[in-house]
Amino acid sequence: MRKFVFNLEKVLDFRKHQEDELSIQLALLRERLRREEEFLEFLRVQYRQTQAQLRQTGLGELAMEKILILRDFLAGLEIQILHQSQVVAQAAAETEECRLKLLEARQNYKILEKLRERDLAAYQSEVLRQEQALLDEIGAHGYIRNRASEALEVNSLEASSSV
What is the pTM of this model? Predict the structure, then answer.
């Protein structure tokens, strides 16, 4: 009998390749998101430390200059934190979008995989049916041969007894 061939094997392979690529892309996006979140946390820690430093600065002529520098630095940090928050939000959105694409690709692959398994089961069932038909035919021929040889024996016994 012919070998099992799944007609959509190339489509199945393509969908598996898509799933693998999206999985790699998702891992890269998750790593990027982690790095961006770490940088945002670094900025926030720096902001809190600068605020604490500003509170500890005493009054005086030199202190006023330091206070102005620290306030300017805090204003710059606020802008950086706001910008980095937007970067993190964008990275999170891209990561989620990729995750959803991966889920869809995985579902598409599984649908074809189940179809392949169903076709393979039907193929195997057909092979078993054909093998059983062949065995039945072999058994029927054997039975007919046995009956024919028994009939010959009976005929030869009858012929020898009448002589």
Answer: 0.72
